[in-house]
Amino acid sequence: MTSTVRMSAVWHSYRGHTALRGIDMSLPVGVTALLGPNGAGKSTLMGVLSTVLRPQHGRIELNGLDPVRDRRRYRESIGFLPQNFTAPGRLTVSEFLTLSGWWRRVPRAERRDAVRWALDSTGLGERRTSKVDKLSGGMLRRLGVAQALVNEPTVLLLDEPTVGLDPRQRNALREVITELGRQHTVLLSTHLTEDVAALADRVIVLDEGQLVSDSTVSELTDREKATASDLDEVYERLLGAGKPA
Ligand SMILES: Nc1ncnc2c1ncn2[C@@H]1O[C@H](COP(=O)(O)OP(=O)(O)OP(=O)(O)O)[C@@H](O)[C@H]1O
């Protein structure tokens, strides 16, 4: 499958701390899970792809667009749900999405349809007149996905979208993401191998800023002679490989 996003030799450091160490990867259409422990560099990778952070070295390309040279078109092609997503509590769901559409440069004449599409895609249609501060955690996370979708991007970056949700909310959001993955390139960061088994076509494992595995989920389980239900064990093995016991 052709890749929409490519990263080669990407490094990123915060003052004195290197968070990404020469990442090479490409993302095709479908859901790719970015799995890694705390501090592995997942949010930094999302930040670099979304242009919130600028890598010190390396190259990124999205359907031939460069994040610096073609900044505006590149950003218009990306929808981003940050880990700490919040929205003003006094707005309604619909008002917030209309504002997001304006902010994301959706032409005025198209904004109403774009908001309706984002609401429908995330199952929020019935909550469009609810105030943001009346939403449950799961609904708020769906709103985060909806605002990422409002300009109809080709690539969706979802930073830990399932964290803190109860099992029912998590399953409902997983269904939304699976559906979006049929047409979009979705990169979803998570700590949970359960998310990988339920959602992902591909899985990239990151540890201490380095990519330790990049394959389809079935390639990974075949290679490790495991089944999808053993992903926890496989993950632990991948993280342990190359480290002193
Ligand atoms: N603004 C910052 N300044 C300095 N160091 C940072 C900053 N942001 C992240 N780091 C460090 O960079 C490394 C990677 O952090 P990052 O947040 O990308 O990891 P993560 O995999 O998303 O972790 P988590 O799962 O806990 O969100 C960590 O060691 C973190 O402490």
From TrEMBL:
Topology term for the membrane: Peripheral membrane protein
The keyword ATP-binding is assigned to this record: yes
GO molecular function: ATP binding; ATP hydrolysis activity
GO BP annotation list: response to antibiotic
Chief place of localization: membrane
Keyword ATP-binding tagged: yes
Gene3D superfamilies: P-loop containing nucleotide triphosphate hydrolases
GO cellular component terms listed in the entry, alphabetical order: plasma membrane
Alphabetically ordered keywords of this record: Antibiotic resistance, ATP-binding, Nucleotide-binding, Transport
Subcellular location: Cell membrane
Residue intervals of the ABC transporter domain: 5-233
Residue intervals passing through the bilayer: none
Family, as annotated: Belongs to the ABC transporter superfamily.
Protein name: ABC-2 type transport system ATP-binding protein
